[in-house]
Amino acid sequence: MNFKRRRPEDPEINLIPFIDVLLVVLIFLMLSTTYSRYSELQITLPSARAQASAQTPREVQVSVAADGRYSVNQQPVAGQSVVVLAAALREAAGGARAEDVALIVSADAMATHQSVVNVMDAARRAGLPQLSFATQSNDGSAP
């Protein structure tokens, strides 16, 4: 008997199916991609030569404590309702126009969200549209 050892054949890699799959993926990506065209408005802003207002807006400071108590310009407000706070804001604004009054809210970090929302609602009821929040920088000093 003739027993010969067979030589192992070299593996053959067929790239045709791989190329077919890549072509299908490429066609899918090309068809599924949306081409968006972003358009911008070309705006030329008008210029003005008016001087800046020498009058600074009147500031009304509202403090919100952690337990929900309010004070307007360092004067405690009796009660925690929005109506009482709105009356105190109107009184602190005096007879000034609403555009000339800036409301600054200084809320404690532990104050509830509802307490701050009550201040914003009271400002709306008092007709004070300019509202800003006081913060501290990370090093502990006021900005």
From TrEMBL:
Keywords: Cell membrane, Membrane, Protein transport, Transmembrane, Transmembrane helix, Transport. The chain crosses the membrane at residues 12-31. It is found in: Cell membrane. It comes from the Bacteria. It is a single-pass membrane protein; Single-pass type II membrane protein. It holds the Pfam family ExbD. Its main location: membrane. Belongs to the ExbD/TolR family. PANTHER family: BIOPOLYMER TRANSPORT PROTEIN EXBD-RELATED (PTHR30558:SF3), EXBD MEMBRANE COMPONENT OF PMF-DRIVEN MACROMOLECULE IMPORT SYSTEM (PTHR30558). This is Biopolymer transporter ExbD. It comes from Pseudaquabacterium rugosum. The lineage of its organism: Bacteria, Pseudomonadati, Pseudomonadota, Betaproteobacteria, Burkholderiales.
